[in-house]
Structures are given as structure tokens and as C-alpha cells.
Specification:
Blueprint (H helix, E strand, L loop, with lengths): L3 E3 L4 E3 L2 E3 L2 E5 L9 H11 L3 E5 L2 H4 L10 H12 L3 E5 L15 H7 L8 H19 L9 E5 L11 H13 L5 E6 L3 H7 L5 E6 L3 H11 L6 E6 L15 H13 L3 E8 L10 E3 L8 E3 L18 H11 L20 E10 H8 L4 E3 L5 H4 L4 E16 L1 E7 L1 E6 L2 E7 L9 E12 L15 E8 L2 E2 L3 E7 L23 E9 L6 E4 L5 E6 L2 E7 L6 E4 L7 E9 L12 E4 L1
Parallel strand pairs: 4-5, 4-11, 5-6, 6-7, 7-8, 8-9, 9-10, 10-11
Antiparallel strand pairs: 1-2, 2-3, 12-13, 14-24, 14-30, 15-23, 16-20, 16-23, 17-21, 18-19, 18-20, 21-22, 24-29, 25-28, 25-30, 26-27, 26-29
Length: 587
């Protein structure tokens, strides 16, 4: 057992000053069988600590229905076995470029801007969640022989609100549930963020990617005493669909890290190893200075241009950081662990069946509802996935523009069974007018809930209505298909023979024969447009032909020697006759 305290100038471990050299690694973005390898990579880089968030929505998909909360404890046990300390950031809001910032959609759907405040309708479910989660953390604190040194109160609250009572209530809840570890807050090094997000009596830290001296000077204006720490050193960045891949020069990043350490500060690399947003859990941002602009969905890969890449390999940035960190660690650094095996040889995916979206919805979807106005995803209990809306245009009437108000995020539209276009929030009107009578189907997809900024918690689906010219069309029938429905398999789906290679939207099923080593691989989906893919029932996440991500990472533990089953839920249809060219390739 150890005693970790926050002194006037330093962190103290059993009374001796200690500098935390930490790196972010999210247990939920790494296959559990690979945790130990990734932790060993962090140690080899020169780190003595690892930091992780905890995503509430992953572990409580419905009120009172919990899913593998024990994973948090198993990860912390692996951290201790790796000889590292731990920083835990339990939220309840985490950002993390994760769906809804980690908050459950079933919670935010009815609360709106009351989330992240002291409103009892928000705090009550938070208490229930923390009472379930925190025993996994409390029993693994340093004063009980575990690795946990620090626990964060909320996350970057100063970027969102100023309800100090909310932060105080969360800190009191952490203490009441047995957290004895030192508490801290983290915010950007700006006055309004530090005043809104810090809490008296709780260590305040700063998040930034460069200019450490200026950032720590801003922090000192608010907190003249206490250890200096950069709780998020942004050594890379994340990518958005249809954007460019973010890259930071390794030498420049190493110089920024060196500056932090020259200030005598502790540091947490964000990210040390980013991993992957498996399961369709990638979030989204809003563009513009005030984060109120166009939706910017995050890609599935969370590589983050981190020193340990998505596949667990050291990058040039790793070696530059290792050189810097070696000067702040006693003795030689550990050697790198052996790299996990990769796929021995490419494997083609042989398509064996296909079912149209209509049949998939019938087999795996929820119940259909009918209401005057379109229900949101939240109304239908859909977190990640899509909703089919049906509405009739009365007639006879001459052709008029058909549009969707409050569309979030993308709709493939059919009029009397014929594809009529793809609508988005920015382009909500069909290119051709629609005459009545007509039946309109809109297959609406969420591209990821906002994880940062004032639009946090906004609803998905059709949040306004369907209009014919200026007239709302009422009597909307809606049915949802949630990605969680695939967890029990697809045996209920009535597959037929595979369609032509340029087949339409639907669920494709196939097999890939792996000979030799069944190790790390990537799935290529040439010719497909947008959707989700699974290998042996494990959801790899979203693919999208707009890039910049061109393939999906398949962790080695997911594959097996011999026959592997592949499912692909294509939401628009194959292009160029290439749906039959899916392949597993070595990384």
C-alpha cells in the first residue's frame, strides 16, 4: 500500500516527491487480450502511469441494465501487473471523441441543457451509475494496494458551464462512495475555462498541446500553489470523415514535451495509444469557432497520430518521446515487448448471402410506431444505427419541393420505391419535386452524437418534420434498427443468394478462410459506400468511402485459423461492381 498526496509544489508518494509521466490509453478502445502489450509499450516509452476515461453509455445501455462494468477493474488490475500507476477519469461526461461524450442517449434525450448541471433529474441517475462503477475503482486505489493515484472530477467543465455547485456535488459523491485518491480537474489554460471548471480544494490542471510556459503561467494566476500538471498534452489529433488525416511533426512534438518537463511539471500524453472506436461509438463535433456549425463526424480509427499507433507499433514520435522521457527516469528503460503477430497472408471474403435493409429491419428492428410528427432516435430507444421513417404525400396534388426540417444526420430517400436522393442537415431538400399521392421512405442514419460543446446531447433523427412545400406531412410511421441488435447474431435475418457485385443496401454475409497465423489485420471494403462491418460477431465500426480512413482494423484476437464470418451492413449500395472484393490484409 502507498500514500499519494498533493503537496504545495510536488506530488508526494510515501512522502517523497514524484513526477507523473502518464499516457492516455482507453481500455474500451483496445481489445482486452491486447491490454498488456499496449501497457508494456507505454512502460518502454518511459512512462510510469496510464490514464483512462470510463464511458457511461457503453456500460449502461439502458437505465439499470449494465454491461461489463467489471472491465474497468480488470484493466486496473492489468495496469498494476504492468508496474504502472493509474489516473481514472470517470466523468460522467468524458468527451473523448466518443458518442455523446460518454453520456447515455436515454438520459440526454429528455434533459437537453439540464445535463452537466446540479439539476436533480441529471444528478440522480449519475449517483446510481457511480454507485455501480466506483467500487471497481475504490478497491484498486493506491492506499489499498492498487494503482489508482488520481481521480478526475467531471471533464473540462470550464469549456461548457459555470455551475460550480454541480462540480462540488460530483466531488462529494466521489468521496461519499469511497474515493480517497487525490481529486483533480482539467481545463484549457484560459481564464474563463479555469474559473468555470476548477473547484476550491481540488487540484487544477491544464490541457494544451504547446507553449507550456504560457499555459502554466495562466494556471498559476488561478492556482499559485500545487503541483503543475498538463493533464492532456495533445501530441496528436483526431480525424473527421471527408477531412484530412491529422499529422504532427515528431520532432516538434518532442520539443513541446521537453518544455513541459523543463517546467518541472507532470504530464499525461493524450494519446499515448489511441486505439479504435469499435462498435460504432465514434462521436462527432460541430464546426466553427463556437462549435455550432456543420456536423463533423469522427472516423472509426482513433490512431490520433499517437506515439504508439492504432496497431500497437512504435512510431517515430515514440522514439523521440522515449529519448526525452529517458532523461527523467532512473536507470535504463525497459525493452519493447514483442509485437503481436499479424495476419500471415491476405484472405478474400467470399460472399454467401445478402438480405435487403427491409428484411434486416423486420428481423432485428424494434416495433413500428405511428405519430403525427416524427419521433427522434431517443424516442425510439436507438443509440447507434438508423431509423426508417414512412410518410404519405396526399393527392392529387402537383409536384412540390419535399424537404426535412431538423435532419440529423443523413437520409437516403425513396419515393414510391425509387431512390430519390440523399439528404443532409446542410442539403435537406430533394433535387426533384414530388407529386401526390406518393409514399416516401427516409432511412435516417446517425453519424455520431456530438461529444463537445454547447450542442452536446442534441437529438438524432428527424427532429422537426417532413414538409411538402411548406406543409408538414403528418402520420409518420417509424421503426429503428440499433447496432446493439447485432450482438445476438444474425440468424433471424432471411438471407438469400448474394446479389450482383453492385448490389443495393442491405446486410452482406460472407466468410474468410485464414491459413497460418490469425493475427492483426485490416478489412478492405472497396466499392462499398457507407456502413458497418463485423468479423466473428465483433463490430469493427463504421466505414465510409469519403475517407480519409480506407480500411478497418481487425484485432488479431478477433480472428481464428480457418473460417471467419464477416457481416457488412451497407446503407447505400455497392459501386463499380466491387462488393465482392472484400479482403483481409496484413497490417
Amino acid at each position: 500500500m502507498s500514500e499519494f498526496t498533493v503537496g504545495e509544489t510536488d506530488f508526494l508518494l510515501d512522502g517523497r516527491p514524484v513526477r507523473l509521466l502518464s499516457g492516455a490509453l482507453h481500455y474500451f478502445r483496445v481489445h482486452e487480450d491486447q491490454w498488456r502489450h499496449r501497457l508494456a509499450m507505454l512502460r518502454a516509452m518511459g512512462l510510469n502511469c496510464v490514464e483512462t476515461y470510463v464511458p457511461w453509455n457503453l456500460h449502461e445501455p439502458a437505465p439499470g441494465r449494465y454491461r461489463d462494468v467489471a472491465a474497468v477493474g480488470r484493466f486496473l488490475d492489468a495496469v498494476r501487473e504492468a508496474g504502472l500507476w493509474a489516473i481514472v477519469r470517470p466523468g460522467p461526461y468524458i468527451c473523448a471523441e466518443w458518442e455523446n461524450g460518454g453520456l447515455p442517449a436515454w438520459l440526454t434525450g429528455g434533459l437537453g441543457t439540464r445535463v452537466r448541471t446540479r439539476d436533480e433529474r441529471y444528478l440522480s441517475p449519475v449517483r446510481d451509475w457511480f454507485r455501480r462503477l466506483l467500487p471497481e475503482v475504490v478497491s484498486r486505489q493506491a492506499d489499498r494496494g492498487g494503482p489508482v493515484l488520481l481521480v478526475q472530477v467531471e471533464n473540462e467543465y470550464g469549456s461548457y458551464g459555470s455551475d460550480a455547485g454541480h462540480l462540488a456535488a460530483l466531488a462529494e459523491l466521489l468521496r461519499a462512495e469511497g474515493v480517497t485518491a487525490a481529486l483533480f480537474t482539467s481545463d484549457g489554460p484560459e481564464d474563463h475555462m479555469l474559473t468555470g471548471g476548477s473547484l476550491p480544494g481540488v487540484l487544477a490542471t491544464a490541457n494544451f498541446g504547446s507553449h507550456a510556459r504560457e499555459a502554466f503561467a495562466a494556471l498559476r494566476r488561478h492556482r499559485p500553489e500545487g503541483p503543475l500538471m498538463c493533464a492532456e498534452f495533445w501530441c496528436g489529433w483526431f480525424d473527421h470523415w471527408s477531412g484530412e488525416s491529422a499529422v504532427r511533426d515528431p520532432g516538434e512534438a518532442a520539443r513541446a514535451l521537453r518544455e513541459i518537463l523543463e517546467c518541472g511539471a507532470s504530464v499525461n500524453l493524450y494519446m499515448a495509444h489511441g486505439g479504435t472506436s469499435f462498435g460504432g461509438w465514434a462521436g462527432a463535433n460541430r464546426g466553427g469557432e463556437l462549435h455550432e456549425g456543420a456536423l463533423l463526424p469522427d472516423v472509426t480509427s482513433y490512431d490520433y497520430d499517437a506515439p504508439v499507433d492504432e496497431y500497437g507499433r512504435p512510431t517515430e514520435k515514440f522514439w523521440r518521446f522515449r529519448e526525452v522521457l529517458a532523461g527523467h527516469r532512473p536507470g535504463p528503460l525497459p525493452e519493447l515487448p514483442p509485437q503481436p503477430p499479424g495476419l500471415a497472408a491476405p484472405a478474400d471474403v467470399l460472399l454467401t448471402g445478402w438480405a435487403p435493409l427491409e428484411a434486416v429491419l423486420e428481423a432485428l428492428g424494434g416495433a413500428e410506431t405511428c405519430s403525427p410528427r416524427p419521433p427522434s432516435f431517443e424516442d425510439l430507444g436507438v443509440t447507434r444505427g438508423l431509423v426508417r421513417y414512412r410518410v404519405d404525400v396526399p393527392g392529387p396534388r402537383r409536384p412540390r419541393p419535399l424537404s426535412v426540417r431538423g435532419l440529423r444526420d443523413l437520409a437516403v430517400v425513396y419515393v414510391d420505391g425509387e431512390r430519390a436522393g440523399v439528404l443532409t442537415e446542410e442539403e435537406p431538400r430533394l433535387p426533384e419535386p414530388v407529386a401526390g399521392p406518393a409514399r416516401v421512405e427516409l432511412w435516417v442514419e446517425s453519424l455520431g452524437r456530438v461529444n463537445y460543446g454547447p450542442r452536446l446531447g442534441e437529438a438524432k433523427g428527424i427532429t422537426g418534420g417532413v414538409l411538402h412545400e411548406r406543409q408538414y406531412l403528418h402520420g409518420v410511421r417509424a421503426r429503428g434498427l440499433d447496432l446493439d441488435a447485432f450482438e445476438d447474431g444474425v440468424s433471424a435475418v432471411p438471407f438469400g443468394a448474394p446479389p450482383p457485385a453492385d448490389g443495393g443496401p442491405g446486410l452482406y454475409r460472407g466468410t474468410a478462410a485464414v491459413f497460418g497465423t490469425a493475427g492483426d489485420a485490416r478489412l478492405e471494403l472497396p466499392g462499398l459506400t457507407r456502413g458497418f462491418a463485423w468479423v466473428n460477431g465483433f463490430c469493427l465500426g463504421r466505414y465510409w468511402s469519403v475517407g480519409p480512413q480506407r480500411s478497418l482494423y481487425v484485432p488479431g484476437p478477433v480472428l481464428r485459423e480457418g473460417t471467419n464470418e464477416v457481416w457488412v451492413l451497407e446503407l447505400e449500395g455497392a459501386q463499380g461492381g466491387a462488393a465482392g472484393a472484400l479482403r483481409l490484409l496484413p497490417v
